[in-house]
């Protein structure tokens, strides 16, 4: 079996490769697809040039591969055409398992990031690919900048209200991708993946306090006040609105659900919030 990991030099992709190796995959069975192959971390795996915007590079990377792990692109607004290129190439190559890292409740969520993932899932279904959908909740690492800011100011400000987030460390989600790629079965499954505990931003502030060693207070703000503050901090109107919309989605419960599926897939509890934050502090 040959497994192609797209975005192999990114934060999630490189951890998926690590997890595949840790779970016994032959290094030569792993193909690391990246725009810049010199950045592929593990020299034991095969590396190929793969640029989501270059269909020829994608087709060449997918040729002869059994399994594709499509790590969703990082360019918001460009994901659907980029993902379509990989989906089309995988279909043409006769890939026998297609794993996609999606977003929580992608087909029904009002989270601002969901539409591109919903569209990608629909493209996968329309192509008739034998697929496994991994709907990843938030990565704890997403809070690295907030943690650093809180260490300086003692304040965590957000428009999330009492909304909860079932985050887990990126390594937990990477391990789940490795599991479904290496194991028989899983095709046709849509897994909603989240950490074992759904926490509030008050809980997050308490975790920041524990990690930084200084008291951190959560200060909830309205969406309008948040946008104004972000603009004052130098963000453009569109970016400020996007950040506020993400927080509004959290406030509405878009990231709150967890049923233990991630822990069952990886065979262990997910990484606790404080431990995950310590790793990025």
TrEMBL record:
- Look up the domain of life of the source: Bacteria
Q: InterPro entries, alphabetically?
A: NAD(P)-bd_dom, NAD(P)-bd_dom_sf, NmrA-type_oxidoreductase
In terms of Pfam families, this protein maps to: NAD_binding_10
User: Gene3D superfamilies in the record, alphabetically?
Assistant: NAD(P)-binding Rossmann-like Domain, UDP-galactose 4-epimerase, domain 1
> Where in this chain does the record put each NAD(P)-binding domain?
7-178
Protein name as annotated? SDR family oxidoreductase
* Originating organism: Microbacterium aurugineum
